[in-house]
Amino acid sequence: MTREVKETFGSGPGGGAPAPPAPAALTARVRTLAPSMTRSMQRVAEAVADDPAGCAALTVTGLAELTGTSEATVVRTARLLGYPGYRDLRLALAGLAAQQQSGRAPAITTDIAVDDPIADVVAKLAHDEQQTLADTAAGLDTVQLAAAVTALAGARRTDVYGVGASGLVAQDLTQKLLRIGLLAHAHSDPHLAVTNAVQLRPGDVAIAVTHSGSTGDVVEPLRVAFEHGATTVAVTGRPDSPVTQYADHVLTTSTARESELRPAAMSSRTGQLLVVDCLFVGVAQRTYESAAPALSASYEALAHRHRMPRKGP
C-alpha cells in the first residue's frame, strides 16, 4: 500500500489484520480506546473490563441486554478492541478472568484527595505508575516497535516533536540517541519543527510524541516529514487520532485515569518514557559495535563533573 493510499483511507500501520490482543492487554485497550468510542460502545467496553468473568459467560444477546445496547454494538466494540468477533472477545475475557483469579492485584484507588496523608499519596501514585507501565507493555505492538527500531538504527537523521510534558519525553529520547553517536534533534518550537521537517527525506526518521494525538504543533511537522518521504513514528495514547494518519509506525501508550491533582499530561509521561527506553535499547542492540564505544566516551567526558571536589587541608 502506498503512503498516498494509507493517508486517504486511514489504513492501520503495517497493513493486514493484526493478531487479536492477548487477554492481559484487554483492559489496557479499553482504557486507551474508550475515550474515542460512542457512549453505547463505552458501556460495553466498561462492562467487559469491570467484570470479565461475568461477561465471558454471556452470549452476545446477553451482553447487549446487560449494557442496554444492541448486538451490533457489542460486535462493533469487540472489533474495535481488536477481536475478529464476539466469540474471540469471550475467549479473551475467560483468559483474563482466569489470570485475575490466580493473582488479583490489591484494590487501591488512584483517586487522590486533597487531605490524603502523604503515605497514601505515595501508595496510590506507585500503584498508578505500575499499572500504566503494565498496560503500556501489554498493549505495545512489538512488530511496530521492531520496525521503528530498524528505521532509527539506520537513519541519517532523527527529528523528534513534542510540546509540554511530551516535549520532555522528546528531549529524553534525543539525549539517549546522541549518547550512542546518532544524529538527533528535539523540536518543541512549532516553527522550527516544520522548517526542519521540510529538510527531511527518505532515510530520515521523524517521531511525534503526543498523548492526545491531536496536538497541532506536533501533527503538522509529522505530516510535513511524511510528505517528504521520511519514515514516521507516532507515540500516542490514541491509536485512532489525527497523528496516526501520517505515521508509518504507531506505538500506543496507556495512561492512568485522570484526577484533579494528576492530569493526563503527568500520567501519560510514564508510558511514553517506557516506549522511549524500548526504542533506545533496541537501537543500541542493533548498533552495538558503534553504540558501546560512543556511550563509554560520553560517560568519560562527563565523569569529572560527577566527582566531589576535594576539601582543602
UniProtKB/TrEMBL annotation:
Keywords: DNA-binding, Transcription, Transcription regulation
CDD domains hit by this protein: SIS_RpiR (cd05013)
InterPro entries named in the record: Homeodomain-like_sf, HTH_RpiR, RpiR-like, RpiR-like_SIS, SIS_dom, SIS_dom_sf, WH-like_DNA-bd_sf
Domain SIS stretches: 148-289
The HTH rpiR-type domain, residue ranges: 24-100
Disordered, as annotated region: 1-23
Protein name: MurR/RpiR family transcriptional regulator
